[in-house]
Amino acid sequence: MYVFNADAVWFGASYISQGIFITILISCLALFAGLVIGMPLGVMRASHAKGFLRKLSDGYIEIFRNIPVLVQIVWFYYVMPILTGVNFDPITAAVIALGLNTSAFLAEIFRGGINGVPTGQHDASASLGFTHAASMRHIIMPQVVRKMLSPLVNQFIVLIKESSLVAYIGVLDIMHRGDLITTEYSAPLESYTIVAIYYFALCYLASKVTGFVEQRFSFPE
Asked: Which of 6, 106, 143, 184 has its CA at a distance of 20 to 30 angstroms from the CA of residue 58?
């Protein structure tokens, strides 16, 4: 019969909570990297041109969307140093892998947002003398960003959950600390329940806060 371990709960809750900052840090940095890379990729994907850049963006997105996130994390941590001679610390490797993976999904969100703007606005901006770049910057992208608030929230929550995979390369996040408590106290029920509670709290809080921001700063169509 399983014996409940109160010591694992008492010490584990405190120890595991120290990984919350690392989980949030990795998720935020990966989301930022995903936005920086994903936006130009989305613009290229929304373009009707079929040139080299479009093919490059298509290939990039297909690669990162169709390889499991865990494989990407492990690849950047163990394989990239072999190819480049540069050793990444676990957090850096995690941010790079999650950021590149996220950029592929955000690119599709940007593409959908751009294509969702009525074509008449593209034509109107051109008739007013806006170049394509100026039109995207001043007219199209502000609307796209407003429409993307909800998908961005969802992607950030996905990132928080996917960040648990970085425990595989030794990052002391929530998940890895839960593993250590399980090993130390032989208490999987207690430690992984605490881990689940922390992840639920983070994702729930993120959805509520960003939901408020969406309501506060969105405008009627």
From this structure: 143
In the block, residue with structure tokens 């959805």: 207
How far CA 127 is from CA of 51, 87, 187, 212, in Å, comes to: 25, 52, 68, 37
* The CATH number, out of the four listed (1.25.40.530, 1.10.3720.10, 3.30.70.1620, 3.90.480.10), of the domain defined by the range 20-171: 1.10.3720.10
Q: How many whole angstroms separate alpha carbon 190 and alpha carbon 13?
A: 9
DSSP 28-83: HHHHHHHHHHHHHHHHHHHS---SHHHHHHHHHHHHHHSS-HHHHHHIIIIIHHHH
pTM value?
A: 0.84
Give the pair of three-digit tokens for residue 138: 């001043």
C-beta of residue 94 within 8 angstroms of C-beta of residue 73: yes
